[in-house]
Amino acid sequence: MNKLKYILGTALVGCALVACDDDHEPDWTTTQPFDVTVSSVSIQEGAIVDVELGSIEVVYSTDVAINSLVDITITNSKIDSIKVKDGNTVVSYFKLSKGKNYTFNIPARGVAGVGSKTFAPEVTVNFATDRSHLTDVSLVTRSLINANATSQAKAVYNMLLSNYGEKQLSGAMGEVAWGTGFCDLIKQTSGKFPAIVGFDYIHLASSPANWIDYGDITPVKTVWDAGSIPAMTWHWNVPKSKPGTTTLWTGEQAMPGDWSGFIQLNDDDAKAKLGNVVVGTVITVKTKDVAAGAQGSVKNGSTWGGLTSDLEYFDITGDYTVTVTAPMVADIKDNGIIISGHDYVVTEVSITNPAGNDVGYDASSDVFSAANVLVDGTWENQVATADVAKLAGYLKLLQDAGIAVLWRPFHEAAGDYTWGSWFWWGNSGVETTKQLWSWLYDKLTNEYGINNLIWVWTVQTSDEGKLADMSKIRAAYPGDDKVDIVGTDLYVESLTNQTAQFETLYNLVNGKKIVALTECGNLIDVESAYIDGALWSFFMGWYEQNDNGPAFIQWNQGNEWSTVLNNPLVLNQGDFKL
Asked: How far apart are CA 523 and CA 560, in angstroms?
């Protein structure tokens, strides 16, 4: 026969001392009315308590004892540390975690009245621990900066606002060739399609072409119609060199028959101009008084050898040109050039860069001056103005189709505040970048009437590999009246919540703007971020691909996409209405 033992005060009373039924349980009443009742419980049903609380007290109407054969539990886990205090109070001790839901339970046979032969009634209390409240949604601006924003843009912003701090939207960048293959891979992996899909106008100079045509908005419209939101980045590629002709030297330099004449173009000024050369650049040497048998020469500015063997010396009858080939580019940029020869006079040396795609395009160009974009008549201004006009036409197609866009130009503008910018739009300093932001906003909004954009500013938070000082971040910020959402781009080693980074952005805008993770490598720990009150509005995982197409190569190789997108705190395609 089992020895059922009940701790009644200080005595152990087994079945031999009381009447037992066939289940070896005392023949005591377990139905109301009870001689033992619950007077109070220190945690109320539905309460939110501090994580440091550590215990719960149940006060009874009479002295009680604890039945050691019945488990008192918290969220189905046995509580081992329990005592009776002051005769009539059962105190249970436990550890709590922040931001969790708990159920405390004393079963009906868990506590008995001393000497009454009566069990106390069951006690069940559902409660939760508090989480941090870093995010105060009441502070967030309730409207977009564009008073003429389309109804679709307002609907997207209001949806983000209504979920901010409580739910997070999933997102993934798209391939630069206007595709959604990476999002398709995520759907295959996780069963969920991201709520936000990234696109990029990086190939604006090439569009329209058979491989890239931003005039075909089908990919964007498809995800929009399916319940996702497009997010547009613009890796704004500009000419890698100044198109047109640049004069390197003018004057009159005789090239005598004894080979003693030369023009050495390897000082800082000349190298700055020659830094624009690309494959296809034409070097032109204008001449006069060319004698019979005259020869020209174009040499390496350092070694004095010909740029190529056939340029050491060659016959001329007048002006002559040399077309720059790929092997010449680095030599010219590093060392400059020397013009030499015999029996003629040089009057001018110039370079002419090809127009259009022959120039080559790059977002990291240090030749393209951000400051000059703001100066009418400069070649940078002409290029940028034409690009914006072309872009506006493509954005207008989306607006006419009723599609709103999370619009993120000039991302990562500061690069690294100490080590320098990564893109041309930061190469003239943060004040110029802020002016560019205003210039682009004015062009798109006021000149071209593009009102379907939600303007997202990327806060650059790094400085020498560390978190940047708030004064630098604040100095680079365009202002609350010019930004709808602030975000940052983070590439960290593992799945973390990045609360410190979130708090930096939150404090930058004093809680007035929605905070988002506009690019990330590894995804974030959404549960931890939620508990810390630092739940990013949305995240955008960076796409990866190899020769076989979209793939998980460096980031999120451990099923993180499935883990995060299937978390109840995360909203995916189809989980919201606009």
From this structure: 7
